[in-house]
Each structure stands twice: as structure tokens, then as C-alpha cells.
Amino acid sequence: MYTKEDIIAALKMVFDPEIPVNVWDLGLIYDVDLGERVHIKMTLTSPTCPMAEDIVLMVKQAAESVAGHGNVTVELIWDPPWTLDKMSTEARLELDLTEEGW
Fold first, then answer.
1. Which of 21, 77, 82, 99 satisfies CB 3.0 to 4.6 Å to 91 for a cystine?
2. How does DSSP classify residue 85?
3. Which of 21, 95, 9, 16 has the alpha carbon at shortest distance from 56?
4. Which secondary-structure segment (H or E) carries 62?
5. What is the pLDDT of residues 9-44, one digit of tens each?
């Protein structure tokens, strides 16, 4: 059996192709629910992200690598909107963002 931490570890292997930080540390993953199926609520940095379909698919595949094929749903949501403060400290350091620079 897998845990939420197992799913999160898999999600940390998914990187936004335009930003050298994983989707978890970017703060794009809002919720991971381990119900009958794994249900992930996520957002993107912008509704016009050209890689939206690819990133959602990569998130689904990463979670399925733990939970099994067909056992994961990914819901793309826009509320609340993503902001820089959702990023982990590690992500901000990687992107050389300081609080003064936001």
C-alpha cells in the first residue's frame, strides 16, 4: 500500500518544462486525496500556460507510478489562483527570488 508521502515523492519528480523546479515545490499541487482513487487538485502558474496539458499528464503519470494505472484523477483548478508565496523556500532559492523581489 502507498501513502500520501509516496505520491508526493513521485510528484517531486515532475518539473515544469519552463521552470527548473518541481511542481510540488512550485506550489502547484493544492491537494492530494487518497480516497477510493488518488485525486489531485492542482493549478498552473498561468491559465495560458502553453505546457498545461503536458504538465497535467506528467502529474497523472507520476502519481500512477505509485498508485497504479487508472487509479488517479487530476483536477486542474484556478481558485485560489497561484501566487509566488505558494512556492517552497527551496524553490524561491533555486529561482533566486527574495521577498524583496516579488
1. 21
2. G
3. 16
4. helix 52-67
5. 999 999 988 888 999 999 999 999 998 999 999 999
